[in-house]
Design goal:
This protein is mostly helical. It has helices spanning about 1-35, 45-65, 70-85, 85-90, 95-105, 110, 115-140, 170-175, 180-200, 200-205, 210-219, and strands at about 145-150, 150-155, 160-165. The chain has 2 domains: about 1-95, no CATH class; about 95-219, no CATH class.
Length: about 220
């Protein structure tokens, strides 16, 4: 009986490990392709690339274990069946883009509760997204810039020319300081979060330093 239970428990773990390895291999292949055989890969950023690969593998591993649970899988499968149902899709065509706007991009449902909380969530969310959009392509060698004499830069993505811009232009300034902008957004959002954690009576009653304050300060 015990051996049967262990066998059942090992199966999803084994599947999760296999999928995590496959996902890592796919990401490595994309890095090689996107950097034109590592010719555009910056060796100084190899630490970021390796850390991202391991983090991606861990994410796939945990997600596979979670989605493999019978209750979770039933809801997951039913959700996609309903999503691809023509009857439901026809009735709720505008619901999906509206949900993306209200629940993800603008998160307007939070603003209905508190404008301060909405600003906090927006700053943290878009700060992280912007930093990922800059850091990951640079770390993988997918994005790089070449100098066009006398005073222009050309942006390349996945080995393809994207656009050129003058070094002293506003586009150049925004490009050079994209991570600075994301850092400012994060600092604003995290400062509001820390302030709420230290002053909100409701949060003070239930929070713990190791699970709440430390995580905010650690960012």
């Amino acid at each position: 009986m015990k051996s049967d239970r262990q066998l059942v428990e090992k199966r999803p773990t084994k599947q999760a490990i296999i999928l995590a390895i496959l996902a890592s291999v796919v990401l490595i292949v994309l890095i090689v392709i996107g950097s034109r055989g590592l010719r555009d890969f910056d060796s100084a950023l190899i630490g970021y690339a390796v850390a991202t690969i391991f983090a991606f593998a861990a994410l796939v591993y945990r997600y596979t274990l979670w989605i493999g649970r019978p209750p979770t899988w039933r809801y997951f499968r039913a959700g996609w069946v309903n999503f691809f149902s023509w009857r439901n899709f026809r009735r709720y065509t505008l619901l999906i883009p509206k949900a993306w706007w209200t629940d993800i991009f603008a998160q307007t449902f939070i603003r209905q509760r508190s404008t301060q909380r909405w600003i906090m969530h927006m700053c943290i969310f878009w700060g992280v997204i912007l930093s990922l959009l800059v850091t990951l392509p640079l770390s993988f060698g997918w994005l790089h810039f070449t100098l066009i004499p006398p005073g222009n830069y050309r942006a390349w993505f996945f080995g393809l020319q994207v656009f050129s811009f003058p070094i002293a232009s506003w586009i150049g300034f925004a490009t050079y300081h994209a991570l600075d902008f994301s850092a400012v957004l994060l600092l604003v959002g995290l400062s509001i979060a820390l302030w709420r954690r230290l002053t909100d009576a409701g949060l003070l009653a239930i929070q713990r330093f190791g699970f709440d304050i430390f995580n905010v300060v650690g960012w």
